[in-house]
Amino acid sequence: MAGILKRKAALVLALLALLPGCAALFPAQVGTEARLAALPRQLPGLTRPVTIRWNQHLVPWIEAENDTDLAYALGLVHGHLRGAQIEIMRRIARGRLAEMAGPVATDIDHALRILNFGRAGAAVEAAWPAETRAFVTAFLAGLNQVVMHGPRPPEAGLLGLEREPVTAQDMLAVGRVAGTDINWLLLFSLLAERGTPGYETRWARLREAGNGVEPGAGALGALLLGNSRAGSNAVAVDARHSATGGALLASDPHLSLNLPNLWLMVGMRSPGYDVVGMMVPGLPVVGFGRNRHLSWGGTNLRSAASDVFDISRLPPDQLRSRTEEIGQRLWFGARRQVRESPFGPVVSDVPLLATRPGDVLALRWVGHEPTDEITALLRAARARNSTEFRHAFNGFGVSPQNMIWADAEGHVGRIVATVLPRRAGFPNRDPVLDAADPAASAPWQQLWDWRDLPQLTDPAEGILASANENPASWAPGGPPVGFFFSDGDRVARLRALLQARPRLRPEDLAALQADTLAPKAAELAAALLARLEALPGGAPEPTLLARLRGWNGDYAAESEAALVFELLLGRLAPAVAAAQGMRAESGWGYITRFLLRDLDALPNRAALLREAAAQAAPLAAQYRNWGQVHRLRAAHWLVNLPLLGRRFVQASYPAGGSRETPMKSGHGFVSGPHEVSFGSMARHISDMADPDANWFTLWGGQDGWLGSAAFADQVPLWLGRQGIRMPLRPATVAAEFPNVTRLEPAR
Questions:
Q1: Domain boundaries in the chain?
Q2: What is residue 415's three-state secondary structure?
Q3: pTM for the whole thing?
């Protein structure tokens, strides 16, 4: 009954939303000149004139006479290009989705209030140095000039977005959402199984595989995964191995693929800053990019930045409770209880999280500590050498990052940027710790930072590659960092491509970012093919297997073998797991480590192989190649709305890549056409030999305004492996960013 009522409520809300939502459902087409004309020119927050130069893709290059005016202009640009996105992200971070979606989102809001992404915000803001406070204050003033006084975005009516200023606390909460600990989504899926038969075995296998569990918490897990920096590739090449004479760097974040993109491309110059790079909308910092002295990128470390504690034995007076008021669109408000403990919020109260009856569990997270990512990244953008860059990350906490850098002197290096509990190791039988055991919480009394964690400068081979790998793979013997890392396939392929040439060019890094080969896929396919061909009576489905024979693991969109392999894998892996009485895990590390081992241990393996081939054959006959089923969709995130979603799909393209190819395009087990929801979605390449040799591309476009000519105009560039040059020399900027907006202090 409850499910029926929720569906009816969603239908009613969707129909009511049609009334004010026509601007979003049927957006007017707007050219770049009209979008620029809508930007205010006379501004009360400026002290001196500011020049913004734009290219044809609505990428801004801001020139200001002082850092405060630069910050103001940045906020103005963020609000103008991504105002609706920022307002929505702010509401997600604050647990206010029901204000847009109605009662169907109340449980998600309750969960977000419990996780409390703004918990450390007041302490972080109070500790800001004066330079950070001034920059953030000016940035928010520029942003709120648009939010409070600019034209309302098309989504405003559909979602019921009211004007309200963005605060520093909102901004910090958004940053914490972007820094969500990926381990939550893995650990949350295990909590309900604790104590059941097979639980310890499953935990041990997941630890051995290093990944493989599906994200838990349903809609909450999908929301957090889509907005967190959970993936990425980054590589660097020193000057000795560069064909241009300068060190090279390429970075390639992996995030949600809905539009508008979760990055915004910007260039900026003031007395303190001379930078090009990518920024998260609503945050005043460059996440990855380049200044005159360094270029940098990063990948999610996937370290264990959290612990779950069993607090059932704590005295009741150590728990505090508060009532949260949750607004519900087109309905009455709701009240929900939120409990806090000395070990963190009580996450067993999350309505969307399955736990055992009677469990009382708390979450301790680095993101609830007063770490200061804003100051760290502002200082990193101003760094003049690698020493300043490394020390900029004092106090940086979330999301934990493998930071890769290349400098103008030809050097390259990496650091692990985060703070972590000083653990001696990880539990073998159960990830949940006993809060009554003083030894369990002792690691949180003093935290490691980047100075205690692995770092590397100028490796002998002259190259660096990162792809969410375990730091133990390049720094053996270091402190325990985590237990769920990416499989080594991506980083192995990146290193192989970097080592294939004695001297590398930026074009080689562009090809690397679009590479679709997974070495372990070729090995696994050959092993399965050998087992099928060795079956008594000969190989089943010879027409099917002929398409797989000789495959090198390349998931090119045109590949027939990639299609056959994934269809065969999608039938076999769940069958093998079922035969063992276990859950099927679709993580690549789990599959490559356990599938053959488990298959060969089964007495009925021949029957399973034959049945998998028989089931895959008719599916494979329906489709020509991998790209016909593996699709990259250009769609506004409103595609997720009930009933109305399809209005926001612009196009769908055949896609290459897979779970662990350098051009990552995530998916689960395959049975037919599906959309890539997570993977490569921004690209950056810099050549330190030339200040102008910087290229960036977004999946989508710069402008989040529905109907804008720049909403998805970079899609052809992305598909064609082209970049937008972001120069640093003033003369080049003037030539390539010809549209000029002059901002003046209000009279």
A1: 519-552+560-624
A2: strand
A3: 0.94
